[in-house]
Automatic annotation (TrEMBL):
Domain named WRKY: residues: 142-205
The keyword Isomerase appears for this protein: no
InterPro entries: WRKY_dom, WRKY_dom_sf, WRKY_plant
Renumbered residue ranges of the record's region Disordered: 1-24, 81-128
Compositionally biased residues, Low complexity: 88-104
Keyword DNA-binding: yes
Protein name: WRKY domain-containing protein
Amino acid sequence: MARRLPKSERSPSLPPPPPSDQRDAAIQELSKGSELATQLMAQLELIPERELDGRRDDALANVRSLSMSLSSSLYALRSERREHHNCGSSSSSGGAGPAAVTSVSGGGRGGGSGARNKTKRRRGKHGEELTETVFITTTPENDGFHWRKYGEKKILDSEFRKLYYRCGYSDERKCQAKKYVQQENNKHPPEFRVTLTNEHTCNTLFQDQPSSSSTNSQVLDFTKASISSPLMDSHVGATILKKEEEEEVPSIDESSRIMSTIMRNYGAYGDYDESSPQSWNGAGWQ
DNA sequence: GATATTTGACCTCC
DNA sequence: GGAGGTCAAATATC
């Protein structure tokens, strides 16, 4: 695990949220990028394997990873936009309003499959109304928020354990957002069912990058064995690589770096530190 | 020493 | 009573 940030660094004073038009521009460009990645994937599939000296599959895997990263980031940005629209002046209790999740083409895996979301309401532990969003993704870690794991459970009739995360700022900022992740299958890459409950009220998406640290605790870490199955291979989950595995699949890292570059270029959250590439690769995640 | 993760125990709901 | 969700002490990491 990467070095953890001192508490003072992890609790920066909140910078002003980016202007909505800037965020919209980022969303727009990410959408374009996602579409282009899909097109590129289709084009690659049309190229005969022999013409690429057997590297077509590698290229396809890279493009898929890129597409998934783009889609996940789109989802995160869109979620945050809703946050500003819906909760801008509301209390921090979260979960009060419906999470009208924008459907995203997340995943973008071959055949057009990807994140499949649906939003539904359910009752919380104490009867309070909760809104939960469920989607399937191959990159459950790429949503840009800082999640802290608080539990893990073997689920009946499932060979995979369910992982429980809450917002890393649940205490500091009373953010009620939670995330449940459960592997669905042993596909390559495997798909994960991600359940999000409550909206983030912490406004910390991509915000708390330390200016000089080589680490961050911003994003969910799936590098632990807890989420992996014996069948998970190097294609799993784009950025879930441990340090010692990095060299094996550099292409995955590359897609994550591309993603971070996009985010920086649009200044979605201005103080992202370019000098911390490991912020986005497996080694730097938490 | 500070912080995150693990994991068994506990709580609540059905 | 069983299953899912959460808590919190122990442990790991930096």
